[in-house]
Amino acid sequence: MLSLNQAFEQSQVDPQLVSVVDSITITCKNIAERLRGGALSGLYGSAEQENVQGEIQKKLDVISNDLLKQALLANRNVAGIASEEEEQAIAGNAEGQYLVTFDPLDGSSNIDVNVTVGTIFSVLALPENCTQVTTDTFLQAGRKQIAAGYVLYGPSVILAITTGNGVAMYNLGSDGVFYQTEDQIQVPETTEEFAINMSNQRFWQAPMQNYVNDLLLGEKGPLGKRFNMRWIASMVAEVHRILTRGGIFMYPYDSRDPSKAGKLRLMYEGNPMSFLIEQAGGASSDTQKPIMDVEPNHIHQRVPVILGSKEEVERVNRYHQT
Ligand code: FDP
Known about the structure:
The protein is 29% helix and 23% strand. The protein has seven helices and 17 strands. The protein has helices at 4-10, 15-37, 60-73, 206-216, 235-245, 266-279, 310-321, and strands at 49-50, 56-57, 78-83, 90-91, 98-106, 117-125, 147-153, 157-162, 167-172, 178-182, 193-195, 228-229, 248-251, 264-265, 283-285, 302-303, 305-308. It is globular, with a radius of gyration of 19 Å. Bound molecules: 2,6-di-O-phosphono-beta-D-fructofuranose.
């Protein structure tokens, strides 16, 4: 079976990029190990909370962030990092050519209930002539991503990755090596499965209300088919399901906090997941344009996210055009 490094070698991925991805996957193995320990790792609960021995417990998302930060900043090919858990980007090594953004533990409200979570990452190039990495250096549209992926901590540990040449998946073996299980994944164009947090329905805008209402009408409605619903409340797990068997995932704008464009973050969730989904033949949209065409103006910018099987994403776009 092909290991991740052999696959990179075969497709002649830049060795410096390989080393950046290595830093991420090695750290993710460490995170997976801690997650597997569950409550025995003493890592459940809130950050800075004391356990019965009077020891300070740190939340796993804080620990995952620290581990990734440490590993990436120690890599001389990394020019800087930006994390969902950090206020500002952090400059890395002077000779580095790559910028990495990451969500260290997506779906973290699921950790304590032992539901699948994951690490999401995106790699950008250091712009030419950049002499000083700042938070603004990261404000590049998703189209400029060099690589993106996630490591899923579920019943098995799975890496999904793209370097702009399709999407491949790897399973973590008991020997600590990621082995390729899928290559050139294709998201089916049509689907009968949707994922959305229905409890927010009354806060959505009219076009989203109309689309979901029509979808719920099933075979007798304008969409002419019966839909099934899934909501894991862990984006990384939902995207993994969509890459595996299709579907549509939506976290639209809602009026609960009108100042926020959506719940999910463009740089750590929207862009990397859109890169994977587009590379697998699916589509992704903020209801007006492809997410990867959104020009970021803030490192923690939020974005409405609609992604998955092409036919359904395009239908959602049409509902928003009328
Ligand atoms: P979480 O808050 O647990 O980190 O990243 C945000 C996210 O999870 C997504 O992974 C998930 O899809 C969504 O939020 C869940 O939101 P709801 O709590 O509204 O269901």
